[in-house]
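Open question from group meeting: does this chain pack into something compact, or does most of it stay loose? Before anyone orders reagents, we agreed to write out a predicted structure and look at it together. Recording both the input and the output here so the notebook holds the full record.
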Amino acid sequence: MRKTMLAAAMALGFMSMPLQAQQAAPPADGIRTEATVVVEGEQPGPGLWLVRKGSHDLYVLGTLRPLPMKMQWQSAQLQQVLAQAQEVIRMRGVQIDADVGFFKGLLLMPKLLGARNNPDDKKLQQVVSPASYARWQALKTRYIGSDGGVEKRRPLFAAQELYAAAIKKSGLDTKDLAWPVVAEAIEAHGPTVTVVRETITIKDPKPLLKEWSKTTLDDLACFDSTMTHIETDLDAMRARANAWATGDVAALRGLPPAYRWEACNNAISEAGIGKRLGFGDAQRKLRAKWLAAAEAALERNTVSFATLALSDMLGTDGYLAALQAKGYTVIAPDE
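Structure tokens returned:
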């Protein structure tokens, strides 16, 4: 079964979740009372960024997660672009490919699930500081409840479960709302689809899982920073989700930049296993592949389309800045 089973164990999904960083001091009880109401119903979504070379255009949709749980995205501009696009570039990211058969994959599942827990059957209270555990208990009571199983998790995976529960209770959803809309348009109009991914192939995952289950991760910083963002940033996340849903680019620009999960990324990529698998190098290769695909599309097509996470797309080190540095014209939706 050539699947991404190990991706869960490596927490890749968690590391790709963007949070909004807001430098605000938490209240005395450590939990802010949220105020922003999340929009519902049909929403236009954001405008499209445009990368131009002469008469050739590449339209880029900046995606965001989490988004309002009860919104339905309707975008007339996107439909018009996809009706003309000769090529669509889809970013799939870094993927783990366990090169095993279906039944071997089933046999590995117990090990995979066990890899989420602390080595030597330690509980969360035994591996984090007393202050961190007190914060955890307050947030867990509010967002998770009495689940005892999460107390066995490594700090990184406990933080993942807490984040998911907090997002859900805030009226937000981390599922990809954008791609199904794009996929429907692709089915209707039939452009060429170029998939950009960097795959790390593991021929025999058993030794890796055994090593992983005994490895102590440097994930305490990830645990603490995740709690800080939940304590202080849920209102900013809702505001950003609303801005994306309603197409308010000015509001998106005015909100704090997307948090990049450095502490959680480093807990995996800087661990011995992460370095041996080449996570850091894979990210660099992925960026180079996407930029090459974008340049090729601009060379051969009159109209092309791509999706990118806003956190990767914008900023001085973002993908659009890299294309602009190469001489391409970049136009924002509000320009």
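Observations to bring back to the group:
The radius of gyration is 21 Å.
Residues 97 and 201 are 5 Å apart (CA to CA).
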